[in-house]
Amino acid sequence: MPATFRDGAFDKFDNRVTFDDGGLHLPDRAHHSSLRDQVTEALRAALIAGQMKPGVLYSAPAIAEMLGVSATPVREAMLDLVKEDLVVPIRNKGFRVTELSDRELDELTEARLLLEVPTMGAVAAAYESSMEPELTRLRALARDLEAAAATDEITRYLQLDTEFHTRFLALHGNNEIVRVVRQLRSRSRLFGLEALARSGKLVESTREHMQMIDLAVARDRSGLEELTRVHLSHTRTIWATDQARRSATDPS
């Protein structure tokens, strides 16, 4: 049974960390070279979803207990996130999540639009049958995304979503774009996802992933660019409302 996070805070009596609605999951081991990488991806997804909240102190041993791993890979993962400015270390205590302003989040979304929209269009324009094996994998990821959305598995959803988009962008052949987009995604905050999943509306927007694949196969450059633009706009609209952000950043 997955560990769950009730309020993102330390329990006053047993010093354990719990997170809001949903579990903290390690990604599929087949796609990661080390346990440290798996823990990093799981924590990054929890940060993006707002299940780990700004202002709350998180300890490596408590998170390690939830994941069923030793504290060492958790500490290493948290230090990786420090380098990405996602968390800050608190000496001899743990780590706190870095808070981003609305302006910073808007700037992140603008940067992603400038990079991802034309790159996805270029993928569609360059479509050829040799891409089919990778597109088959993307279709499987799209189905997994819909399943995660339907079952409210938010951290798993975000892990799959990152894999889907970065693998799709990689078809263009520019590894630097993929690297930068991955960094931009890790700094995003999508605090409205849990409410959307509970309402059933997340599944609807998740279907856009399969539509992206169809547009690429049809070599519909303008269609894929427009859908990518619409899809990314969710990150500052239906996937991240002001009310959801305030709720997710309030540790009380």
UniProtKB/TrEMBL annotation:
InterPro entries xref list: GntR_C, TF_FadR/GntR_C, Tscrpt_reg_HTH_GntR, WH-like_DNA-bd_sf, WH_DNA-bd_sf
MF (Gene Ontology): DNA binding; DNA-binding transcription factor activity
Domain of life from the UniProt record: Bacteria
Coiled-coil intervals: none
TM region positions: none
HTH gntR-type domain segment(s): 33-100
Keyword DNA-binding: yes
Database matches in Pfam families: FCD (PF07729), GntR (PF00392)
Keywords linked to the UniProt accession: DNA-binding, Transcription, Transcription regulation
Protein name in the entry: Putative GntR family transcriptional regulator
Organism: Microlunatus phosphovorus (strain ATCC 700054 / DSM 10555 / JCM 9379 / NBRC 101784 / NCIMB 13414 / VKM Ac-1990 / NM-1)
